[in-house]
Amino acid sequence: MKRKGCRLAAAVLAVSLAVVSGGCQVGGEKVTISRGMSENEVFLISGKSCKLSVMKLLLVNNMNLYGESYGISLLKNEDLKVQKKFGQYIKKICIDEAAKVYTMDALADEKGVTLTDEQKELVQWAGEDCYKNLSEAEISAFELSQDEIVDIYGKYALADKLYATLISDVNQEVSDDEARVMEIRQIFVHDGDQAQQAYSDLQNDTEFSTVAANYNEADEISLTVERGMLPAEAEAVAFAMENGTFSEPVQTADGYYIFYCDNKYDEELTQQHKQDIIEQRRQEAFDAQYDPFVAQTVSKLNEKVWKNLSIQDLEQYSFAQFYEIYDKYFSEESWVEESAPQSDTAN
Question: Between 192-203 and 208-215, two packed helices, what is the crossing angle to 10 degrees?
Fold first, then answer.
């Protein structure tokens, strides 16, 4: 699933369900662990039940996606501590992600967001495709039906559509000035007399880097900066500079800055930063509706079932196409009603 959507728009999503000692949390609030859930249920969120079979599918998929790093096996590592940490990591990302999807689906219900018939058809095809890619041994071990795979794909699709709906009004226009990234050198000192002495050396044509090496108390001299990274007084001066010039000492609450402007406008980094700003706006728009919903959502974790679910019991299985298959049928454009995918595009 594309990370632009519900599967990590991660920057966008707060953890909906987090395993902690003795319980679970929703939006930072402890909730009661259910002692009455069945042995094939992992959690409930707003009455929506996540089955053990689905969690096994996600666990196997993710442990095969992330099971090797730089050619080193994490799942079957000789160091048992590495195995254990990897297992804990995989279980955490899987339950966090599943909980986010289920929470978003509950919010979609509240908002009246639903899939179109065409989108439901794609969900059906994705589920059938996924089921065909599982071995008989995996289907048996997971105790997983095709209908359950269709259902989880439907939940992912609805979560993505909800996300697209909640950010649909976000302003996509970002000016060059708002996104501008510049390259500067700095001299930072705490003492005003030191700042004046450094400035005097610059006026006497001493090279800026030489003066900086003698006076600068900051960790770095050369900086790539965007708006919001410097104190307001320093930012106002730096962003008004021309290439090849240095500033007078600028007093801030932290100390004194002197800048040299190497490049007042880095075009490539500025264009990249525009996308960062748009993503931040999307996150803020999403969080404004998602966070209050999470805070009042009722959640239950079947701690015993989740604790007893072992990665090592699943390590013999190789399935890793869950997200790849989802991406085959859905893209970011899928959630624009006017351009919803037609059935023949999935063949």
Answer: 160
Measured distance CA(167)–CA(285) in Å, rounded = 6
When pLDDT is cut at 50, 70 and 90, the band that residue 332 belongs to is: confident
Which range, of 74-88, 100-114, 262-276, averages the lowest pLDDT?
74-88
CA distance 160 to 335: 8
- Residues 330, 122 contacting (CB under 8 angstroms): yes
| Best CA proximity match to 94, nearest among 325, 330, 316, 323 | 323
Contacts (Cβ under 8 Å, ≥6 apart) of 27 = 14, 16, 291, 294, 295, 296, 297
Name the residue with tokens 């009661």.
32
pLDDT at 17 over 70: no
Query: Which DSSP symbol is given to 183?
Result: E
Whole-number Å distance between alpha carbons of 330 and 82: 35
3-class SS string, 237-283: HHCCCCCCCECCCEECCCCEEEEEEEECCCHHHHHHHHHHHHHHHHH
Q: Which residues of 178-201 are buried (b: 16+ CB within 10 A; e: fewer)?
A: ebbbbbbbbbbbeeeebbeebbeb
Residue 43, helix vs strand vs coil: strand
The confidence score (pLDDT) of residue 81 equals 80
Burial of residue 344 (CB within 10 Å: 0-12, 13-18, 19+) is exposed
Q: What are the backbone dihedrals phi and psi of residue 17, each rounded to the nearest 5 degrees, phi first?
A: -140, 120
Q: Write the DSSP symbol of residue 25.
A: E
Q: Indicate the average pLDDT of the chain.
A: 86
Could you say which DSSP state residue 2 is in?
-
Flag whether pLDDT at 2 surpasses 70: no
pLDDT digits (tens, 9 = 90+) for 184-232: 999 999 999 999 999 999 999 999 999 999 999 999 999 999 999 999 9
